[in-house]
Write a structure and sequence with these properties.
This protein is of the alpha+beta class and about 240 residues long. It has five helices and eleven strands. It binds coenzyme A.
Length: about 240
């Protein structure tokens, strides 16, 4: 059994093509139905690998077998554990071709995003639709295409991890909050005056996973005056 201290966030990573266990039968009926709804086998396989992995990860923290986890979703679709006595185990899942990431934390809201690195021909359009003007300017003013793409995915994954931690999906206006790096290269979150903040404090970070993927997480911290960062542990399956 893995222990998860209250001041920790654990990030579990999987390369879905190397998944040892992909038995769809351990998924619940809603998951199996969703798996069947994918048109392409590669999408179905990724979904199944991610959801089997999520169940494996959760069972490392509690005496609940993989197939016995039950989930409930909020109004925006964010799933949480429904099993009695295990609500403290908070998680978030992200999957893209080649990578699955699952973050878990003890009684803290958490969000995670993993994205596949790719060439984006519509970069100005994407930046304008999803980023604040500050973020879009920072991406589009970079001197080299590779730097633009790197910055784009840093912002994209950070913003996605944040809205996933808040659990409100795209109902949060993406242009009204900005990620800004301070002089120590730490990311700070700035809100525009009419943005609906929920009063929580957050710790976040973004990184490249090899050449092909970008990852960011966002986890609720205790209070803005606390200088103590949560400990982050990354585990590769
Ligand atoms: C659904 C959404 C939460 C994430 O979508 P995504 O990035 O395509 O997918 P990810 O793989 O990272 O995450 C999917 C998982 O998040 C979880 N999830 C679903 N709704 C969620 C919500 N409201 N909040 C948090 N997590 C959620 C589920 O576990 C889901 O897994 P499943 O689809 O296999 O059931 C939402 O943020 C969205 O629609 N994003 C669209 C992308 C976009 O425009 N992003 C702008 C970023 S700047």
């Amino acid at each position: 059994m893995l222990s998860l201290a209250t001041d920790e966030v654990h990030i579990h990573l999987l390369r879905p093509e190397l998944a040892k266990e992909t038995d769809e039968k351990i998924l619940d009926s809603a998951e199996q139905q969703r798996a069947q709804s994918f048109k392409f086998k590669k999408d179905r396989d990724l979904y199944v690998a991610a959801h089997v992995f999520l169940r494996q990860v959760l069972s490392r923290y509690a005496a609940v077998s993989k197939k016995d986890w039950q989930f409930v979703s909020n109004a925006y679709g964010k799933p949480a554990i429904a099993n009695l006595s295990y609500g403290w185990l908070q998680f978030n899942l992200s999957h893209t071709h080649g990578r699955v990431a699952c973050a878990v934390a003890h009684n803290r809201a958490v969000g995670i995003d993993v994205e596949q690195h790719r060439y984006l021909s519509e970069l100005p359009l994407l930046c304008r639709s999803a980023f604040s003007s500050l973020e879009a300017e920072n991406v589009l003013s970079a001197p080299h295409r590779d730097i633009q793409i790197q910055r784009f995915f840093s912002y994209w994954t950070l913003k996605e991890a944040y809205i996933k931690a808040r659990g409100m999906g795209l109902s949060l206006p993406l242009q009204q909050f900005s990620f800004v790096q301070d002089t120590h290269q730490n990311w700070q979150l700035h809100y525009s005056p009419n943005f609906q903040d929920d009063g929580k404090n957050w710790q976040f970070s973004t990184c490249r996973l090899g050449r092909d993927h970008h990852l960011a997480y966002c986890v609720q911290t205790d209070d803005s005056t606390s200088s103590k960062a949560l400990r982050v542990r990354v585990m590769e399956a």
